[in-house]
Amino acid sequence: MNETTPSVERVRAALLAANHADTIEVFPDGTRTAQDAANAVGCTVAQIAKSIVLRAGDQVVLVVTSGANRVDTHKIAGLLGQPVKPADGRWVRDVTGFAIGGVAPIGHQTPPRIFIDRDLMTLDPIWAAAGSPRHVFRTTAAEIAALTGGTVADVREG
Prior knowledge:
Blueprint: H1 6-17, E1 24-26, H2 34-41, E2 48-56, E3 59-66, H3 73-80, E4 85-86, H4 89-96, E5 113-117, E6 126-129, E7 135-139, H5 141-148, E8 151-153
Parallel strand pairs: 2-6, 3-5, 5-8
Antiparallel strand pairs: 1-7, 2-3, 2-4, 6-7
């Protein structure tokens, strides 16, 4: 089964443009939640790189966090110097080009401001959404940081 979508192809193109191997895999049962993805891939929940989309005014803020962590929006607001709020699904799709559950760290229609959970930096490999709730790609946190230009920071609650 090699089904794909335009958003998955956008992620694939971004990976290849950055000289990253095409490590996209499809899981028919889905990878919508971190636990679903970990079950499908056969890794720990911590190794799933969740993409959390927030809004700072009209700016897209993407937090790539360990599947084991929850994002502290106050820490993100402090890093940005302005308030953030959760983004609704329609806005996420409109500005990123991805549906919730498939938001990749790369290949966005509108370039986001990106923060990467420092807890991911010790995990190898990690798996990130690849444009749909059924597609993920294998990578490392260092590669995510290089691909996105994201800022590595303490973003987790607690």
